[in-house]
Design a protein that fits this description.
The protein is α+β, with helices and mostly antiparallel strands. The protein folds into two domains: about 110 residues, OB fold (Dihydrolipoamide Acetyltransferase, E2P) (Beta Barrel), CATH 2.40.50.140; about 160 residues, Beta Barrel (OB fold (Dihydrolipoamide Acetyltransferase, E2P)), CATH 2.40.50.90. The chain is built from five helices and 16 strands. α2 packs across α5 and α4 packs parallel to α5. The longest helix has 20 residues. The radius of gyration is 19 Å and the shape is elongated. The chain starts with a helix and ends with a strand. About 40% of the residues are buried.
């Protein structure tokens, strides 16, 4: 029954929109019990002084990478891409998701006079050896949490749990409650059965696709859900940690909505999903 908890808790009606997903059941109880405490623990004044470093930022290199005035290149912890809401919704979304978040990051840094206070995360470096840093603005706010609360990004904690993870999820709950940024997204869902593996146009954007789960393959490396059309949905490796209580076989026969980019895979299409917000179970 535990495997059904995540799936059933994320059920939505079609008119409730795209972003009522499994994130609620994964972190909902945590937010209810700890949101107030987490908010206090997020600010710079509540951090240990050891390891903190004040820096100047030379420029933004990407949605989560900064070139510092001292020549270092760092990665900001906690940010995942989110598309800004256009006035007209469509099933296919532009893949240049980084542009909205980068613009928001640059704006925050300009307001802060290009100054930040950094502290190394856990682990201290990413797979390419770049320093991973938590960053606070001069007013004491956690930079990633402020961007997430504005609806400019989704939370993406690191591979090792940290106390500041609760700040990211609390910020996401705030953005969702205020219907800000990505939380306004209501694109239509394409039926999986109408997808055409030969239609290259579909591979130039993010899709929102609805279909019935016909079967699920679970291995040590990944889960693959086959939908009632030429589409397989892939959840790989560490991404499965976002669904700690989900038994993927429990989704067989369920109607689901998934969001992501599709790409050719043998004679079918495949979509990799990364985050609980990209998977919904529909009544």
């Amino acid at each position: 029954m535990t495997g059904r908890v995540t799936a059933l808790a994320s059920r939505v009606r079609p008119d409730e929109g795209v972003l009522r997903g499994a994130l609620v059941c994964v972190v909902g109880l945590l937010l209810l019990s700890q949101a107030g405490a987490a908010a206090a623990e997020c600010r710079l004044a509540d951090q240990e002084s050891r390891g903190l470093q004040e820096v100047g930022v030379e420029r933004v290199l990407g949605f989560d990478r900064l070139r510092l005035a001292d020549g270092r290149t760092i990665r900001l912890i906690g940010l995942a891409l989110a598309a800004p809401s256009p006035e007209a919704m469509a099933p296919v979304r532009d893949l240049s998701l980084h542009e909205g978040l980068r613009d928001a990051l640059e704006a925050r840094l300009e307001e802060a006079g290009q100054r930040l206070t950094l502290r190394p995360g856990r682990p201290a470096r990413d797979s390419r050896g770049r320093p991973r840093m938590h960053a606070w603005l001069p007013d004491g706010a956690l930079l990633a949490a402020r961007l997430i609360a504005a609806g400019a990004a989704m939370p993406r904690p690191g591979p090792w749990p940290e106390p500041l993870d609760a700040c990211l999820y609390a910020a996401a709950a705030e953005a969702r409650a205020g219907e800000r940024g990505l939380w306004l997204e209501r694109p239509a869902a394409l039926p999986a059965r109408v997808l055409d593996p030969l239609d290259g146009a579909l591979r130039h954007g993010r899709l929102r696709v609805q279909g019935e789960v016909i079967s699920v393959r679970a291995t040590e490396r990944h889960w693959v859900m086959e939908l009632d059309g030429p589409l397989d949905v892939l959840i790989r490796g560490d991404d499965r940690d976002h669904w700690p209580d989900l038994e993927p076989e429990s989704l067989t026969g369920e109607a689901v909505i998934v969001r992501g980019q599709v790409y050719p895979w043998r004679d079918r299409l495949r979509m990799r999903i990364w985050h609980p917000l990209d998977l919904e179970v529909v009544d």
